[in-house]
Amino acid sequence: MNDKAVHSFAEAYDRERAVLPGADGWLARRRDAALKSFVEAGLPHRRLEEWKYTDLRQALEKAAFAPAPAHEGAVVLPDTVAASAFAAIDRHVVVYVNGRYRADLSQAVRLPKGVELHSLADVLHEQWAKELVERRFDDARQSEDIVDLNTALMRDGLALRIRKGVRLDKPLHLLFLAADGGASHTRNLIQLEEGAEATVFESHIGAGDAFADIVTDVALGDDARLAHVKIQDEAAGTVHLATLRSRLAAKSHLSSFTLTLGCGVSRMQNLVLFAGEGAEAHVNGAYALKAAQHADQFCVIDHAVPGCTSHTLFKGVLDGASEGVFQGKVIVRPHAQKTDGRQMTHALLLSRDAAMNAKPELEIYADDVQCAHGSTVGELSRDAIFFLRSRGIPEAEARQLLVSAFLDEALDLVPHEAAREALKVLAAGWFADGEGRA
User: Would the pTM count as exceeding 0.90?
Assistant: First the structure.
């Protein structure tokens, strides 16, 4: 064990093991095994193909993050555009500060019958929660190893279970605030039984340096539908590592969208497994980066059964010396005939110092399928800018119009109308504040 950060996490586990949720049950053994596996593997680095463009070891060793403390005293939620992006939408609000649930700031009341909303620790004794925590995709282990760190140190999170045929009456908004720096290891569990429906928003904001380690396990029953919209806009010194693992049963529907604006280094892992025929997954996102920001979008869509559809589109704008990454893979298993799998990524460079690395991949072992992938990296068209300026539009406004039009193709895929408009406002605000500032 040579990594300073690994040593720091192992020490933190030794100190806190006895007080972590599930310390006297099945999870204790699972935590021990996960910590052992994590220590043996170490933090990911560029020599690993899946981490070729993102060196998490380097990012975390700049500041060995100790566990974030429980925040003492009152908390005033920051008045940032990211924090208030969903404010105009009627929704349930659940707030976490430094990775811990805050009942005094949350507003989830009068949930419909059949909707269960708990803290993670309250459901760890239940079989459905255990199955979600322990689940591993045996056929698609890509980037699962880093989840061991979360399994060992997870302290709190959301557990949402919606019973058969029940529809959550309005969106559930999870607001994660890093108030004091340090590392927070959050685990969320979402299970929608047959025919259930829900919309979940996530906002990640913070003012200080922090390490946000989030794993969200999603299980959709037959015909279940989940819309998931995430905004990540944290401080420049924050490292954000998030994994969304989704298992889709027959005819279920997942629509996920991530807007990445903030923090220094971020990696969003979307791992989708089709377990039932006729299911559909839309995994999309947009990012706008400046200065020395680094954002990595990693997707593995595993078509393990026939007749499923997956569409992925990520679009990004990069300014300053920022760096974007897209690594995506669509796997079509031998018996997954009638698969429709598409994966695209497009990036726009606003600076000669900005960089983009894109690696979309297809692994196809069936013959009756429709699959496509592709990527583009380009600059703003000088002819388009000239055309707009010739009609009296100032250059800065012309550039903003072109960038907004570029991102809107992705933002139009946000699976909630009001959230869609809110994210477009956020993206436009980034351009007004960010371009040329880096």
Answer: yes
